[in-house]
Amino acid sequence: MTSMSLSRGHVEVLQFLRDRTAVVFTFLFPAMLLLLFGTIFGDSYDRDGVGAGQVYAASMLAYGILTTGFVTMGAGLAQDREDGTLKRLRGTPLPVVSYLAGKVILVSALAVAEAALLILVGTLVFDMPLPDAGRWLTFAWLFTLSVIACTLLGVAVSGIVKHARTAGAILNVPVVALQFVSGVFIHPITQLPGWLITVASFFPVKWMAQGFRYVFLPDGMKSLEAAGAWEPGRTAMVLGAWCVIGSVLCLASFRWNDKDR
């Protein structure tokens, strides 16, 4: 099963790389937003020597993972279901676990490359300092849990997408909304109404963005978080819970074709 999963992942990566438009927008759009936000707000934001570009570079890692895991997975599954790919695969020895593992390999590869680009832009353009070894360990489990949670939710939500051509529009609605209420595009998050912060706290994006700021920003910046602290333990618990929720939703919503609806 491992070899089939790796083979399927190889196919998924090759298929994605052949779509130049998808490659360009997947990798360049978050970096472009980072450059825009960091440049526009760079002169008006400076807290303890930390500029807007550094804050957005850390926060935008959550945006990149969400779009890569949630949107790419959700739209890809909807496309495979509509064009008959899933129906054909169902008649082969490839188990559903290996098919989904192939998608996870694709998302993981894209997320790693995208995170590397954002960190590169953050360090070279906005002088974002790189963390020490301990914070890199935090980055590792935070990145892993974030990718798993967003990917599983992408699989789950693909079951409600009726047509692949509308998948992007449907999936980007919650993505954009969560960026604004979770402190990715708006910082400090305390500028938002308290009830909106409470709502955002139920979703993983707020904790992802806060966690990445913990990794890359100095400890003095924690006073700008909703709780006035980084809360890495709570971040791990919330993201772990969303991994479990995503798994349950996947089992309940996954289908091979529209007739299984």
UniProtKB/TrEMBL annotation:
It is a multi-pass membrane protein. Pfam families: ABC2_membrane. The keyword Transmembrane helix applies. GO terms for molecular function: ABC-type transporter activity. Keywords: Antibiotic resistance, Cell membrane, Membrane, Transmembrane, Transmembrane helix, Transport. Residues 21-257 form the ABC transmembrane type-2 domain. It is found in: Cell membrane; Membrane. GO terms for cellular component: ATP-binding cassette (ABC) transporter complex. InterPro entries: ABC2_TM, ABC2_TM_bact-type, ABC_2_transport, Nod_factor_ABC_transporter. One of its GO terms (biological process) is response to antibiotic. It comes from the Bacteria. Belongs to the ABC-2 integral membrane protein family. PANTHER family: ABC-TYPE MULTIDRUG TRANSPORT SYSTEM, PERMEASE COMPONENT, NODULATION PROTEIN J. This is Transport permease protein.
